């Protein structure tokens, strides 16, 4: 199987040596997305919404959508934001939710408050 790099200008460009997403066969691996373009940071719901919108743009670039997501990983700076993140994150899915873990971390790139990566299958 060949590896296809997926890129869209509808989501922020990578800030390091990685791709927005890589597709192998019918599986898409989307790198962690952040909302660094929001300023000032601090509204966790706005950040989460922007992250999910960026994710959607990448999924669309691979001819997929949120229904194709089978696994998500969420990194948060403050687990006290768990409920607020869940509210926004959950609104992007209908029906069967993907598998997921949520991990509190000390710091995220660009000092954002939330980062989300996903795996999607067509």
Automatic annotation (TrEMBL):
Q: Which residues cross the membrane?
A: none
Q: Which PANTHER family match?
A: 2-IMINOBUTANOATE/2-IMINOPROPANOATE DEAMINASE RIDA, 2-IMINOBUTANOATE_2-IMINOPROPANOATE DEAMINASE
Q: Could you say which protein family the record assigns here?
A: Belongs to the RutC family.
Protein name, per record: RidA family protein
Q: Which organism does this sequence originate in?
A: Fibrella forsythiae
**Lineage, top ranks:** Bacteria, Pseudomonadati, Bacteroidota, Cytophagia, Cytophagales
């Amino acid at each position: 199987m060949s590896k296809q790099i997926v890129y869209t200008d509808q989501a922020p460009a990578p800030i390091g040596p990685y791709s927005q997403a890589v597709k192998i066969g019918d599986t898409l691996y989307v790198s962690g997305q952040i909302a660094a373009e929001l300023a000032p940071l601090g509204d966790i719901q706005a950040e989460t919404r922007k992250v999910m919108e960026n994710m959607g743009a990448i999924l669309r670039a691979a001819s997929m959508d949120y229904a194709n997501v089978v696994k998500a990983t969420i990194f948060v700076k403050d687990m006290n934001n768990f409920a607020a993140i869940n509210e926004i994150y959950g609104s992007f899915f209908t029906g069967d939710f993907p598998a997921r873990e949520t991990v509190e971390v000390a710091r995220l790139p660009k000092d954002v408050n939330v980062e989300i990566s996903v795996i999607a299958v067509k």
